[in-house]
Amino acid sequence: MSVRVNGEAVSRTLGGNNADGNGERSDDGYLVIDREWDGDRVEITFELPVVPVQAHPSVAVDAGRVALTRGPLVYCLEGVDHDRPLHQYRIETDAETESNFNADYRDALLDGVVTVTAAATVPKLEGWDGQLYRPAAEPTRSRESVTAIPYYAWDNRAPGELRVWLRKC
User: Which intervals of the chain are annotated as region Disordered (predicted)?
Assistant: First the structure.
């Protein structure tokens, strides 16, 4: 039996009844399990980390932004999950903060999807006092977390804002 292995998978676990080892990974990206079968069940689990990706530098609109991916899926922020405009969030993507990405299966959400939570910062709005403009200065920011859902699942709960490309801290 040959099973296609996603290129982003960092590890795998092979289980089921009569499981014997992890199989062999072929040069063309398949996990090959060579054995005699007698009604056996095979369970394969792939570890897919959350990976922030960036667009080519020539894509001006996405400069300084990242998209969150997990395996072949692209994730997005959806307004229904957040209490402020999505453009205000900045995602922490430094090497030290990569552990701040968590993938969790949520059975009750849209008949079951894996969501991603990420560390983010948002501007503090105190001190604006109804002003539309003021002298330029980096705003004071506070930490929050954001929840991202697979892009294919957006706009299934309530109409609202969507954002794939997120500014970096």
Answer: 1-27
Beta carbons of 117 and 89 less than 8 angstroms apart: no
- Cβ–Cβ under 8 Å, residues 55 and 30: no
> Is 142 within 8 Å of 124 (Cβ atoms)?
yes
Question: Going along the chain, which residue ranges are E strands?
Answer: 2-4, 11-15, 24-25, 30-32, 43-47, 50-53, 65-70, 73-78, 90-91, 102-106, 113-123, 141-150, 162-163, 166-168
20 CB-contact burial (10 Å; exposed 0-12 / middle 13-18 / buried 19+)? exposed
Maximum pairwise Cα distance, the chain: 74
This prediction has a pTM of: 0.80
Residue corresponding to tokens 């801290």: 169
DSSP code for 21: S
Whole-angstrom distance, CA of residue 144 vs CA of residue 69: 20
The domain ranges of the chain are 2-47, 50-168
- Give the C-alpha separation, 48 to 84, whole Å: 29
Burial of residue 70, with CB atoms counted within 10 A of its CB: 0-12 exposed, 13-18 middle, 19 or more buried: buried
